[in-house]
Design goal:
Elements: H1 2-19, H2 24-41, H3 46-49, H4 57-74, H5 84-89, H6 110-125, H7 136-145, H8 153-170, H9 175-186
Helix pairs in contact: 1-2, 1-6, 1-8, 1-9, 2-4, 2-6, 6-7, 7-8
Length: 192
């Protein structure tokens, strides 16, 4: 479900951020962004969120409204505000073809670039209502294909390297075991 996806995205993203030796503050912003993204997705039609083909105009405006709604909601969660970069910019693409701002390269906040990679990785390797999970090799090939267009190639490379080992561990976890793992990973960055 959505919760397990969020937990796995946190684990993958923090590991990737640690490999890049990102600052404590940046990792905290990433975590807050993932949590906010989770809050925002709860009120959005799942078929829209999971859609593989490009969204039509009406769907696109729903998606963009969703981002605005989340931003409005966040103002109520003061301590999460540094997570806004993930929420606002995780649909941007490295080559500038994404939305809402058409940002490219390092104009896209670092934590949003990390989120885009790990969110896609988990989505591809997880069972979804409309399709079976892809094999790991296939998932990595899909990400590689999008390196430099959708994804930041420098950030993506270490994920590709560590994916087999990390996926081997994380994909076997669910329910309580997954929650325990997330708590362990988050301990350094959040007062739980």
């Amino acid at each position: 479900g959505v919760r397990a996806h969020t937990h796995r995205v946190l684990i993958y993203g923090i590991r990737l951020a640690e490999m890049h030796k990102l600052s404590l503050n940046l990792i905290r912003s990433f975590v807050h962004g993932v949590l906010l993204h989770d809050i925002g997705m709860l009120d959005l039609d799942v078929s829209l969120v999971m859609k593989q083909v490009p969204l039509d105009k009406k769907e696109l405006s729903l998606m963009q409204d969703h981002v605005k709604n989340v931003v409005t909601q966040i103002k109520r969660y003061r301590w999460l505000r540094d997570g806004l970069n993930v929420v606002r910019y995780h649909h941007e693409k490295y080559d500038g073809s994404g939305y809402p701002a058409g940002l490219s390269h390092d104009k896209i906040p670092l934590e949003a670039r990390i989120f885009a990679i790990v969110d896609a990785f988990d989505a591809i390797t997880s069972k979804r209502p409309y399709r079976q999970p892809q094999e790991l090799e296939r998932a990595l090939a899909i990400l590689e294909q999008e390196s430099g267009s959708h994804f930041d190639p420098v950030l993506l490379a270490p994920l590709i390297e560590m994916a087999t080992q990390l996926y081997g561990i994380v994909s076997k976890l669910d329910g309580k075991a997954l929650e325990t793992e997330v708590r362990g990973v988050l301990k350094k960055y959040m007062k739980l």
